[in-house]
Amino acid sequence: MTAMRKQLVDLYLTPIGRRHGIYLVYWTTPSQRPAGMSRATWPDAGELKHVLANQAAELRKSRHDITPFVLDVSYKQSS
User: Fold this and answer.
1) How many CB atoms lie within 10 A of CB 78?
2) Predicted pLDDT at 79
3) Paired residues of 51 in beta bridges
4) Most buried one in 19, 34, 46, 66, CB count within 10 A?
5) What was the pLDDT predicted at 4?
6) Per-residue pLDDT at 77
7) C-beta separation of 68 from 52 below 8 A
8) Coil, helix or strand for 72?
9) 38: Cβ–Cβ under 8 A, 6 or more apart, which residues?
10) Cα separation of 2 and 29, whole Å?
11) Pairing mode of beta strands 65-72, 20-27
12) pLDDT tens-digit map of 17-73
């Protein structure tokens, strides 16, 4: 949960003098997550997007305009 700043801003954008970026993360339903990946963390994609939006709002204070995007890669389960 620190990658937006540490990776995107500090490692990629700042060294090349940029202040705008897209922070893309993938999300899948807990039951479809790979072995070893938490099934309890972020059970809802909307909640994750809300947290990332708050991080982006904090970064605006340092004049960085980051847009978080949560991509749902869950496969459709058969009924």
Assistant:
1) 4
2) 65
3) none
4) 66
5) 97
6) 76
7) yes
8) strand
9) none
10) 22
11) parallel
12) 999 999 999 999 999 998 998 988 999 999 999 999 999 999 999 999 999 999 999
Say how far apart CA 16 and CA 4 lie, in whole Å. 16
Q: Tokens in use for 63?
A: 């004049």
> Taking the CA of residue 67 as centre, how many other CA atoms within 13 Å lie in the half-sphere pointing to its CB?
5
**Cα 2 to the chain's mean position, in Å?**
10
Give me the phi and psi of 19, to 5 degrees please: -130, 0
Inter-CA distances, 3 with 38, 74, 78, Å: 18, 22, 34
Q: What are the tokens at 35?
A: 């072995």
What is the token pair recorded at 17? 């003098």
pTM (two decimals) = 0.87
Encode burial over 9-37: b for 16+ CB neighbours within 10 A, e otherwise.
beeebeeeeeeebebeeebbeeeeeeeee
Which token pair is 23? 């922070």
